[in-house]
Amino acid sequence: METGRKLIVGYDLCEDYSQISCFSYKSMEPVPISAVPQDVMNRIPTLLCLKEDSKQWLYGEEAKACAAAGEGILVEHLLKRLMTGELLELYGQSFDGITLLEKYFRRTLILIKQYFPTEPVTKLVVTIRDTKPALLEGIYAALSRLGLERDRVTILSHAGAYLYYALNQERSLWMNDVGLFEFHEEGFFYYRIRLNRRTKPMVAGLEKVDYTHTLSYSKLKEKENNAAYLLENVTGTALYKQLVTTLYFTGTGFEGGWAEAVIKSLCNGRRAFVGQNLFVSGACYAAKEFAGDRTLSDFILLDDDMLTGSVGLRVYCDTKYQELPLAEVGEKWYEVDKSVEVIPEGEPELELILKNLFSRESIREKIHLTNLPQRPDRMTRLQITFTCKDRSTGVITVSDLGFGELYPETGKVMEFTIEI
Q1: Nearest alpha carbon to residue 396 among 350, 363, 364
Q2: Whole-structure pTM value
């Protein structure tokens, strides 16, 4: 691999397997980084093993082999341990989830040095199946211990990585809607990308549907179930009356050849692709975009974690009324955390401006503050904080800050929920 201007890295971190890719400026596409020579799948088991005699940490296939030989203790479920915060006792030492993940990152990211021995990482995008806040914070913390701070790291959902992957393919593949079926131990999901070409820039929105209740790993293994028939039902339901002309299939659940006939039948009027590197490649394309080498500047990409509406607060400032942004279209809901201070005048109320990207509607909504302490006009200072519970629900917290030494803060807090 060549020495590029930038070291761009995509990393698909899953509970069972992980994958790494780097962007090649020769081929202009992601190139997989393998832990095992000639490994066409380029999958690294998300495992660690602490060797008993040397106390050395092993990862992936080596970890599995060491534990199987009885020479160390196998550590699985790294992401679950990160979420639960449980401590793991190994040979008299305690390890938390962040420490374990840091050790896994340290040993897998060093594989990149085989190709880029001297370059520091310019941008790393980690893609994960579920973007739960506790998991995100744990991943950021683990990478921070390796010197990779948030200015060089971004975390995307699989849905977000899929958007970047699909729109970096040849244009003919996304002239109409694009579909993806993902099947693994944690579930069966369908993602659909819809392009709105009437807006400038174009909006690429994404819908995600969970079909695990119809087809799951457990049903795949039950002999009395016809998995191909169940898959045919799922795809028929998902694609009913949809203009989807490109389909992708990914995940360990599609391995073994059982789905080939169904996938082939879906190629009537469509193009279908089956592979296991879609998300890691999408993360790599995203990292290239975030590093400044943009090819998707004509798009607004909205995955299932991003806001499709904006929230503004109407305030009087510098002799005129202004709209102060609290949340913007395209922000990830779990990253929204805006605080401002205001001094109300007259009737204490907040006036919000809610705008929807797709409907183009702009709604004004007033929130009356009825629980404030009685003080003279313009003698109260309030902190307004805006966060999100999920993609479509915002939370406004109003805190009384008092007014200097004249009026100490009371500690009163009001909370309001709005639909975005």
Answers
A1: 350
A2: 0.89
